[in-house]
Amino acid sequence: MKFLMGFLFLLTVLAGCKTLTPEERRALDGQTCSSFGFKRGTTAFSDCLLDLELDRRADRRAQFDQFNTPVIVYDGYYRRW
Q1: CA 65 to mean position of chain CA atoms
Q2: Cα(49)–Cα(41) distance, rounded to whole angstroms?
Q3: Which of 55, 4, 63, 70 is nearest to 25 (CA)?
Q4: If you write DSSP's letter for every residue of 37-56 in order, what string do you get?
Q5: What phi and psi, each to the nearest 5 degrees, are found at residue 36?
């Protein structure tokens, strides 16, 4: 019974997880740039959207690099290369 309740709880938590579609992400980015004071249709607004996307990609690359860096263990110490 405990296993079943735990499993149902886990399913409920995972059901709440949702990834954003590209359209939803674009709408949120547009709201962010508007909140910064940029007007839609201007070059500054486009630059703001581009900067947000470039920052997001840089974060993804950094996370990828962090987890794909070889780790060498010697004398009980870890070292990333």
Answers
A1: 15
A2: 11
A3: 55
A4: TPPTTSHHHHHHHHHHHHHH
A5: -80, -10
- Collapse the DSSP code of 80 into the 3-class scheme (helix H, G, I; strand E, B; otherwise coil) and give the result: strand
Write down the domain spans for the chain: 21-80
Count CB atoms within 10 A of the CB of residue 33.
22
Q: Of 79, 60, 63, give the one whose Cα is nearest residue 71.
A: 79
Q: What pTM value is reported for the model?
A: 0.61
How open is the CA angle 43-24-31, to the nearest 5 degrees?
Answer: 45
Whether residue 6 is predicted with pLDDT greater than 90 in this model: the reply is: no
Q: What is the pLDDT of residues 29-74, one digit of tens each?
A: 999 999 999 999 999 999 999 999 999 999 999 888 877 766 666 6
Place of tokens 């938590």: 13
